């Protein structure tokens, strides 16, 4: 016997699911009309991934993005483009979670005092990679991005980190990566008020001088510091004090000669990773304390001197190896 009630309920449920899926597609799917110079693809049923390439005229870009009004964009990429600036009206009505500016040039970042207006409540990640802003840009242009948690620059013309980086200290930044540039100067209090900072990377720059005052004190949430491939020869004795959450320390590719106990002992037992590879380490009596301590689970680094210990991994050192002074 056919159960008419059950069949009806099943059909009703199928219709409801079909309508729900259709509604989701209408609300969050890519527009059907052409988006040139941009393209769009749907990620699941939740958000869109939009890529805009070879933009030289801001008007087609603005027209294209206007078709995405009220549609969630997970990632917007602007690639291989050259425009005068990103106008303050460009992102009106848009909800964008991640923004990538890649291999592009601008005269100015914006035509107003703040950049990326309209994205204050949605933008969580901003990556500027291999870009050039001919008239320069200031940290203050980013100060209204109150939802921003991750900011990264890479090969984008940054040469100093001055005191004006304080303009974005009030944001909820958890990850700051200013990498592969020519930074040679970092203000002595540069990141001291970045209280939510979890990861700081200044790798592949030209930094030679670092101070404890550059970091929050206490640095309660700071778990990773990456200063690799700079010009650092020495670290101050207090550099890692009051860093209870630090578990990853990457110092490879510098000019560090030894692992001094006053410098490293405040965090040595809590570290899970330490990378001192590509440093001219002199494995002598100053490092006896290291051989007596527990090495972090992941340890990289090799002796450069004396000759008998050359290329020996530091986590294989024994106290008897370190008689040379």
Automatic annotation (TrEMBL):
Keywords: Leucine-rich repeat, Repeat, Signal. Residues 1-29 form the signal peptide. It holds the Pfam family LRR_8. InterPro entries: Leu-rich_rpt, Leu-rich_rpt_typical-subtyp, LRR_dom_sf. PANTHER family: IG(IMMUNOGLOBULIN) AND LRR(LEUCINE RICH REPEAT) DOMAINS, LEUCINE RICH REPEAT CONTAINING 53. This is LRRCT domain-containing protein.
